[in-house]
């Protein structure tokens, strides 16, 4: 037997016109699939960006990166399946394996999937944005006030006043209090003794409120409001004044209102009582 006969058979098979034609056809199909996938990626990317242009603050604009990523993975996965089919690879076991793997990962990573889905809705609804002052209630309890530093797809990062950085998974959030939307309310409570002239004290609160409004004309959604007697406590009548201000200005507004109120009360001879929260002096 000629030792070169196997080599000659390989050469005959490789140079067989039908085999060459099938190979060229396969390569053409692979090129067409790759080109179609590339075109689909470019077109979908352009359409999504065009749709979301100028709407970054709306739900459609915020969720665009998520939809873009899902479309990218779907197009690439479809192209790979078509390429495997083009080279005559049975894709049924591949799809079955992918299904089983997806179910396994779904059961094993259910908390991760819960966090991701909650993150999608949180980003789409625009409940929060970076820089907001928030309070979050979740499975771990209530967090202190903190500033949102980053809204990732799986978790929320909040920087507390103490500097501590909290990472809160979206799926564990029960409700969110946002103090940076629309307006805030500055509330000032002043205690006065029971024997004090309440009418004079309320006149002092109105004068202080009018002075604040004159100094901040157009600086708030509404004029200061004298709420009157807010509470009766041991040893003190609690008077209250409030005003709506821009988010983040409530502490400054409350401090200025408090100073105006104390000056107005002093002009009327009304002395504030025991500070709220302070223990009463022991009786003789």
TrEMBL record:
GO terms for cellular component: plasma membrane. This is Mechanosensitive ion channel. It comes from Candidatus Segetimicrobium genomatis. It is found in: Cell membrane. It is a multi-pass membrane protein. Belongs to the MscS (TC 1.A.23) family. Keywords: Cell membrane, Membrane, Transmembrane, Transmembrane helix. PANTHER family: MODERATE CONDUCTANCE MECHANOSENSITIVE CHANNEL YBIO (PTHR30460). Residues 112-181 form the Mechanosensitive ion channel MscS domain. Residues 69-110 form the Mechanosensitive ion channel transmembrane helices 2/3 domain. The chain crosses the membrane at residues 27-48, 69-88, 94-113. GO terms for molecular function: mechanosensitive monoatomic ion channel activity. It holds the Pfam family MS_channel_2nd. SUPFAM superfamilies: Mechanosensitive channel protein MscS (YggB), C-terminal domain, Mechanosensitive channel protein MscS (YggB), transmembrane region, Sm-like ribonucleoproteins. It comes from the Bacteria.
């Amino acid at each position: 037997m000629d030792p070169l006969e196997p080599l000659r058979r390989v050469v005959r098979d490789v140079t067989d016109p039908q085999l060459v034609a099938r190979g060229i056809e396969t390569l053409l199909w692979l090129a067409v699939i790759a080109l179609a996938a590339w075109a689909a990626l470019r077109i979908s990317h352009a359409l999504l960006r065009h749709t979301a242009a100028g709407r970054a603050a709306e739900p459609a604009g915020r969720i665009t990166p998520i939809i873009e990523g899902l479309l990218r993975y779907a197009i690439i996965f479809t192209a790979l399946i078509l390429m495997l089919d083009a080279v005559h690879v049975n894709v049924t076991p591949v799809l079955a394996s992918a299904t089983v793997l997806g179910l396994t990962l779904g059961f094993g990573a259910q908390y991760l999937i819960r966090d991701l889905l909650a993150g999608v809705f949180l980003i789409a609804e625009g409940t929060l944005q970076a820089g907001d002052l928030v309070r979050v209630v979740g499975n771990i309890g209530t967090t202190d006030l903190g500033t949102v530093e980053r809204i990732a797809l799986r978790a929320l990062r909040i920087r507390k006043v103490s500097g501590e950085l909290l990472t809160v998974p979206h799926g564990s959030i029960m409700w969110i209090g946002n103090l940076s939307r629309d307006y805030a309310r500055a509330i000032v409570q002043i205690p006065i003794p029971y024997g004090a002239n309440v009418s004079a004290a309320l006149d002092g609160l109105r004068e202080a409120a009018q002075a604040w409004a004159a100094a901040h004309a157009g600086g708030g959604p509404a004029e200061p409001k004298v709420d009157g007697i807010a509470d009766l406590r041991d040893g003190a009548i609690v008077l209250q004044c409030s005003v709506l201000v821009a988010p983040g200005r409530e502490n400054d507004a409350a401090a200025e209102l408090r100073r105006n109120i104390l000056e107005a009360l002093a002009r009327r001879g009304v002395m504030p009582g025991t500070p709220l929260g302070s223990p009463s002096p022991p009786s003789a």
